[in-house]
Amino acid sequence: MSIGIAIIGAGIFARQEHLPAVKATPLLSLKAIYSRSKASADKLAESTAEPVKTYYDSPTTSSHSLNHLLAREDIDAVIIALPICVQPTVIKEAIEAGKHVLSEKPIAKDIGTAARLIRWYKHQKREELWSVGENFRFFDPVTFAVEQIKKLGGELVTFSVDLHAFIDEYDEYYQTAWRQKPEYQGGIILDGGIHYVAALRCLLEAAGQSISTVRASTSLIEKNLAPLDTLSANMTTTDKCNGTFNLSYGSKFRRECQLRIMLTTGAVVVSPIEVTVSTNDKRTIRDQTFRFLPVSGVRKEVAAFAESIHTKEPNPRGSPDQAYHDLKLLQGMLESGEEEGAAKRI
Question: What is the pLDDT at residue 285?
Fold first, then answer.
């Protein structure tokens, strides 16, 4: 029997990723779509293979609210992709209504809010599954790199993350009203940067390491991306290995996206469409490059969520605790930046 699912939030990511992922998952059957406005809910519904009922806040209409959607017995689960500050309340409402939840990253606007939400969920001891959507944990280059790091073995030597991109006022995500005036720490650094924190944590975990201390500086290059668009950090792991994390969305003349893990037995370099594995064969360094299709990982993420509901076994890659630690690391860097590079224990 298929799992009835609703998409809560009809923005860019729902249109480009969530809806196609639901369509591609045989275990799921789309039953409804919710958005704050009827126009956006209806627009997304136009892309569905079969008619689905839409729910919305504006204009106010009898039997079309989010509460009416959550009351439907044929809806077993929801995917929530709403503004960051709104999501925790809707997550609780959906779980209390008996729905399994896949909520978009980040888990919350800060670790205090995230911790309270996790404590509430665990205290409920409910059967409903709650998974946090971090598609980089299902991103083919990252998952492949994790396996390669495990195969190489050895000890961690150093690591780095380098993301340089440019977001201007014409970017479709920037056009989202709540992103133009963020009510959460870090602005685009939190919204976009959390992906690279998650990816780094995956790779370091494969090497048997985690971050213990960070020292960071933050700045704003492009005024339209306030409060911040650039972060540079020095990191130290539990075994005293040092690495760097450099992230900027204000780099007009530089484009780069690489994560590097250096081991005593080799190196793994990850980019959006390829992974290069380097090993030392006596006196010769041998590089192997593996290429991947440019897909986001969301389809695998949604399929894993459906499988978790089907088997009643949570997928550890969607664990709220993992999402909490992603946020804790990023918040530590932001707080260090606010305090002019003060060391922050993670």
Answer: 86
Cα separation, 92 vs 88, in Å, equals 6
Does the N-terminal peptide bond of residue 59 adopt cis geometry, omega within 30 degrees of 0?
yes
Distance CA 7, CA 137 (A): 21
- The predicted structure's pLDDT at residue 253: 87
Q: H or E segment at 271?
A: strand 266-271
Contact yes or no for 144/136 (Cβ under 8 A): no
Contact (Cβ atoms closer than 8 angstroms) between residue 34 and residue 9: yes
Helix (H, G, I), strand (E, B) or coil at 238: coil
The structure tokens listed for 301 are 């993420």
Residue with tokens 């009351």: 71
**Which residues, given as ranges, of the chain have pLDDT below 70?**
none
CA dist 7 and 314 (Å) reads: 20
Identify any residues that bridge with 277 across adjacent strands, giving them in sequence order.
268, 288
What CA–CA distance (Å, rounded) separates 66 from 73?
14
Question: pTM of whole model > 0.85?
Answer: yes
